[in-house]
Write a structure and sequence with these properties.
CATH superfamily: Uracil-DNA glycosylase-like domain
Helix content: 25-40%
Number of strands: 6
CATH architecture: 3-Layer(aba) Sandwich
Low-confidence stretches: none
Bound molecules: iron/sulfur cluster
Shape: globular
CATH topology: Uracil-DNA Glycosylase, subunit E
Number of domains: 1
Largest sheet: 6 strands, mixed
Number of helices: 5
Oligomer: single chain
Radius of gyration: 15 Å
Strand content: 15-25%
Length: about 180
């Protein structure tokens, strides 16, 4: 199930240029869930094509993962104004689409705080849960969930970059062929 091209289920519809749908291998057993589209994503209609996308690509490449091997999406499919965090209501409105994207997969990777807030209800520090293997319920089934840093958090933090690299190694060695 995808949003209708004119989806108006939440107020993020008011400022968007494009609805940003998942990209990559849409049948992959591994799904990355980021926060929300930014300016470049809104203009192109594709997730993680701006600065964060370049960092994500670089780290994946360093760890020998082809970006096209995974599916990449966001908690909400429309850009929040001024790149603010999506609200609980907006994430809730968009959740049925995300649930369908995550359904039947082997691993869900939560990229950053908003994704972890939406999928785990977690409000604490990312450092306390990063790369801890957990489980979330997706449409009645438990699915492995790995929380990690958003690529944007890696711009100025060596620790975050190293942790995101570790996430990629976990995926490469355990869940991607
Ligand atoms: S964010 Fe999701 S629910 Fe809200 S308008 Fe966009 S597609 Fe619809």
């Amino acid at each position: 199930m995808r949003p209708e091209p004119d989806c108006r289920l939440c107020r993020l519809c008011e400022n968007r240029t494009n609805i940003v749908l998942p990209s990559g291998n849409l049948s992959s057993q591994v799904v990355f869930v980021g926060e929300a589209p930014g300016e470049n994503e809104d203009l192109s209609g594709k997730p993680f094509v701006g600065k964060s996308g370049k960092i994500l690509n670089a780290i994946m490449e360093e760890e020998g993962i082809d970006r096209s091997a995974v599916m990449i999406t966001n908690t909400v499919k429309c850009r929040p104004p001024n790149n603010r965090d999506p609200t609980k209501e907006e994430m809730g409105a968009c959740r049925p689409f995300l649930d369908r994207e995550m359904s039947g997969r082997k691993v869900i990777v939560g990229l950053g705080k908003s994704a972890c807030r939406d999928l785990l209800g977690y409000e604490g520090k990312m450092a306390d849960i990063v790369n801890t293997e957990m489980s979330i319920n997706v449409l009645g089934k438990d699915v492995l969930f790995i929380p990690t840093y958003h690529p944007a958090a890696c711009i100025y933090s060596r620790e975050s970059r190293d942790a995101l690299r570790t996430t990629m190694r976990i995926l490469r060695d355990g869940y991607l062929e």
